[in-house]
Amino acid sequence: MSEHEELSGLDDLDNRIRAAREREMVATESGSGRRQSSSGIALGMRVSIEFVAGVAVGVGLGWGLDLFFGTKPVLMVVFLLLGGGAGVMNAYRAAKGLDATVGLGAAQRRQARRAKDS
Amino acid sequence: MANPIEQFKIKPIIPLEVAGVDVSFTNSAVMMVISVVLITAFLTLSVRSRALVPGRWQSLAEVFYEFIAGMLRDNVGQAGRKYFPFIFSLFMFVLFGNLLGMIPGAFTYTSHVIVTFGMAIVVFTGVTIIGFARHGTHFLRMFFPEGAPIATAVILVPIEVISYFSRPFSLAVRLFANMTVGHIILKVMGGFVVSLGAFYVLPGIVPFAFLGAITVLEFGIALLQAYVFTILSCIYLHDAIHMH
């Protein structure tokens, strides 16, 4: 008798677990992309790294393309400027607390939507 | 030993050379092997009993598992489940590298930019391949913001592309810089304790107290940087899988 009760209790638990799991499946279908909070020094470090990385990658890409097309030094100059733009964009995103996904506009829209939700 | 940079020196333990390339087994490699062995031992031995009510070690292993599983679920969603083994290994490797480096005299392999860059470039290439495999050339549309005038593509697309390529660099440099700076500060502070405390006991206490506080902070940074490295990998994976 008591064993039977226990079994039905387990059954009930099983159902509840399944229901909770399904709810979670729906809620996390595509991942909400929570943002991380960070301290001042961590943010400062991150902003500077993001900016420098943008410029460095821009110069590197330009240099590589120059080597490939034999157009030294035109593309390096162009990509230095573009890299500066990318660096500023990265730093802006880090400072604004936008998520790290590709596309500034999409990240801004997502943040606005989140702000409206909460 | 007073040199604060000396702790990052790579020393070959078993000198090896293959086709003129130096592939010696170094102190960095020793620490990597130790950390992999420790991770494997920790995870296999702790869950060996497979108890329904976990013991001390098993619950520790479960905490790690659930932490990463939750991170993946929140940041990538259900489609990210199959990448769990990779993300989990990445997290454990970085975490153990950071924490083992906190043992006095141990070598911190995450304080070398080539190690962190190697991991970052694996994440970056993997994510890019996943993106192309799932979406084909449609994946490239991500680089042009929706609704922007088509004439601005000349500037916007290269900027987004450069920003995309700068990801492995910022990922690698963030981990490497945090670990290197922390260890240099620890060494310099330790030097102060010795040089001041050798002559006057009282002034030696001040840097010693500081050293204690910074050591605690360093443990926090070791945990935090492993977390940041993993969560950024998850966010990049989310991009490749969902494209918003």
Main features:
heterodimer; A: 118 residues; mainly alpha; 4 helices; B: 244 residues; two-stranded antiparallel sheet
Short description:
The complex is a heterodimer of chains A (118) and B (244). By secondary structure, chain A is an all-alpha fold.
What does this structure look like?
The complex is a heterodimer of chains A (118) and B (244). Chain A has 118 residues and is mainly alpha-helical. Chain A has 4 helices and no strands. Chain A is 79% helix and 0% strand. About 4% of the residues of chain A have low confidence. Chain B is mostly helical. Chain B has one domain. In chain B, helix 2 packs across helix 3. The chains are: A mainly alpha (118), B mainly alpha (244).
Tell me about the biggest sheet of chain B? 2 strands, antiparallel
The assigned structural class of chain B equals mainly alpha
> Which spans of chain A of ≥5 residues are poorly predicted at pLDDT below 50?
32-36
Low-confidence stretches of chain B at least 5 residues in length (pLDDT < 50)?
none
The global form of chain A is: elongated
Beta percentage of chain B is under 5%
Q: Using CB atoms under 8 Å apart, which protein chain pair has the greatest interface? A: A-B, 39 and 40 residues
Mean pLDDT metric of chain A: 79
Helix share, percent of chain A = over 70%
Q: Give the strand tally of chain B.
A: 4
> How far is the first residue's CA from the last residue's CA of chain B?
52 Å
Structural class of chain A: mainly alpha
Number of domains of chain A: 2
